[in-house]
Amino acid sequence: MRKKTKIALIILGIISIIGLFFILYHDFHPELEMLLSPKNYRAEFMKSIRSHGPEDALILIALIGVMCAIPGVSNSVVCIFAGVCYGPWIGLAINILGNSLGNVLVSYVIEKFDLSDKVKKMGHIVDSISHFKYHFLGIVVGFMIPVIPSFLVDYTAIQMKFPKSKLLAAIVLGVLPTSFMYAFGGDALLRGDRKRLIIVGVGLVVLFLLYVVVHLHKKKVLAEKKQATLTNSVGGK
């Protein structure tokens, strides 16, 4: 990708994020005032925060999608906010739609522009995903783990020549666990449900451990390949 094009896309993404945040700030300003007030407006706050309609839901979907599409930008706080505002189930739908939209956008950009220079710096993560015996499972797991940049998973899937329908299925399945935990975690925060917050925390730890397993799997596969190469080299002499 040309440097000017890359900079233009990043600037466009940042401007979009700022604009969407401004709209949300305007729409949620009354709730923010209640939250910062020294008086106790808990009942009014909970009622007001849950009174927002589909317009703000669409803004959240767009914001989650744009943030998902920009490498290095985390949308976890916005995903949790979706759970706070719309409850666990609608919040889950918002998160899935937003994250799926963002990854579809990334896959489109990857197909149009060369990102190999960006990927080379984190090639070990691409190797971790591509060394799965079942490639579809590897892509799904890649999307599941928050610490793996989603654009790397999209890049790997495109390099494997995944059909668009198969990639979309992998995206939806992959973003489902974190979308679920963030939405239910946001709802638990609003309600003060400590048990549910602990469950969400445990779920995030499990996803991190899954990343460790993926990394160890990659090292094992690479070691086996290296050993096979050495064996063939010795045998050929």
TrEMBL record:
Q: Which InterPro entries match?
A: VTT_dom (IPR032816)
Keyword Transmembrane applies = yes
Q: Which Pfam families does UniProt cross-reference here?
A: VTT_dom
List the transmembrane segments. 7-25, 57-82, 89-110, 134-155, 167-185, 197-216
Q: Can the keyword Transmembrane helix be found in this entry's annotation?
A: yes
**In this protein, which residues make up the domain named VTT?**
75-187
- Keywords in UniProt for this one? Membrane, Transmembrane, Transmembrane helix
The entry's protein name is VTT domain-containing protein
Classification of source organism: Bacteria, Bacillati, Bacillota, Bacilli, Lactobacillales
